[in-house]
Amino acid sequence: MASGTSFKKCENEQAILLPSPTTREQSGLMIKKLTGVCVSTIAFLRNLFDSENFETRSLCGQNVQILKRSCHRNNGVDCLLKWLKGVFDALDNKYLKTVSLEIRDVTGLLLETYEFHYTFHDDQPLLNIETSKNIHVGGTVWRDSSMEEIRILLRNILVATSAQPILPPNCFTSVRIHYHDGTPEDYEPPGFKPFFGESPDHVHPNRLKLACGQVSTKFHTLNIKTKLAQTIPSSSEPSTPEIRCECGLEDRAGSLLKCETCGTLQHLACYKIFSEENSQSQRTHKCIKCGNSKPPKDFDAVSCLFRRVIALCAKSKSVSIKKLTNELNLNPDSALVHMKKLQREGALQKSIVPICLEKTDFMHTVNKSAIDNFKVKYFN
After folding, report:
1. β-pair type (207-229, 132-136)
2. Contact 156/228 with Cβ under 8 angstroms?
3. How far apart are CA 207 and CA 7, in angstroms?
4. Contact 182, 97 (CB under 8 A)
5. What is the CA radius of gyration of the chain?
6. Phi-psi region for residue 61, left (φ > 0), alpha (ψ -120 to 50) or beta?
7. pTM of the model
8. How far is residue 304's CA from residue 298's CA, in Å, rounded to a whole number?
9. Beta strands in the chain (DSSP E)
10. Distance between CA atoms of residues 216 and 212, nearest Å
């Protein structure tokens, strides 16, 4: 998460052109562009990603920050952009009712929600943006109104987010879609999976509701609402959930899941989830001890630790015994065992330097193709 960013002026920024919404297709394109601008603005103002993941563009004479695919690959940015494509697919099919952009802390507590409500009026699209205190700060935006209302809409988002406390470290985002009645039961846009509810105790109890505004055309309505936590516990408070994981370690390296029953935390890789993108289907996660089924055979401590080692290899060019001890809190003997297993299974490129406790600092190059195969072999 970025430590701090600010709006930047760019003399040669490229303008975002909004089509005149005289047809259903033009209106849909306008709503898509406004949705992308608003999501990017929220991500920028809440410092969800580093500033290098944004580019300055111009909309209605106002500079805005737009998410982009960076040459420095960022899985969070790529995932959010992929979700937006799924949102646009549902919009094109006229199934889309609500999109919720959610921000949660490391324990899974829901801190902020930005709701985009879509209405179709006999082939019309509308955009309405709201935040969460029942304070209306927006209005209806018509295409022939010189775009002043769109500038007000973006300004309202700025005002709503600027008053918020700084988000705690290691926050993550997710996107949820609700459909209009009549949507086929088997329909899911690209990048989304079915979701069946939210545990109330995972939602911040003191959230402010604000209405940012609304944009309308002859074909669609987009309405954006937000629910924002007025106070966010600091990471130093003693209410940090306990880590109770099958690997037997209590470190907080990597991403964590929270059991909805006992509230303890588990490592993502230990539960056979390879990345944060795949973790979005685990919002109703239960730990092994709270689950009703018998634990699988490969949930012993050694297997869980090896999956964590694989996850570390996936984001590293090379690894060593010392790297495993430092980043995963393994003892040297355990790190040695896992390094040799990586070597046996072809996950490390051949080297003239042996893997041994006398060479703990030596970095062995990771074989990325083998790690990709491990995703299928060792993870869901």
Report:
1. parallel
2. no
3. 27
4. no
5. 23
6. left
7. 0.54
8. 7
9. 14-15, 54-59, 62-67, 96-104, 110-130, 132-136, 140-141, 172-179, 207-229, 256-258, 265-267, 318-319, 364-365
10. 14
Residues 104 and 170: their CA atoms lie apart, in Å, by 9
Amino acid at 138: G
pLDDT in tens, 214-237: 887 778 778 888 887 765 555 434
Cβ atoms < 10 Å from Cβ of 352: 4
Structure tokens at 41: 């603005």
Ranges in the chain annotated CATH 1.10.10.10 = 256-379
Q: What CA–CA distances, in Å, run from 73 to 53, 105, 273? A: 9, 23, 20
- pLDDT tens figures, 303-320: 999 999 999 999 899 999
Token digits of residue 111: 């801190």
Cα separation, 175 vs 189, whole angstroms:
12
> What does DSSP say about strands 140-141 and 207-229: parallel, antiparallel, or unpaired?
parallel
Q: How far apart are CA 217 and CA 33, in angstroms?
A: 14
24-125+142-229 folds as Cell Cycle, Spindle Assembly Checkpoint Protein; Chain A (3.30.900)
Residues of the chain with CATH 3.30.900.10: 24-125+142-229
For every residue of 175-221, DSSP letters joined together read EEEEE-TT--TT---TT--------GGGB-SSEEEEEEEEEEEEEEE
What residues form DSSP beta bridges with 33?
Answer: none
Averaged pLDDT for residues 200-218: 70
List 112's β-bridge partners, or say none.
103, 228
Q: Which fold has domain 256-379?
A: Arc Repressor Mutant, subunit A (1.10.10)
Nearest to 273 by CA among 235, 250, 246, 243: 246
Q: How many CB atoms lie within 10 A of CB 95?
A: 20
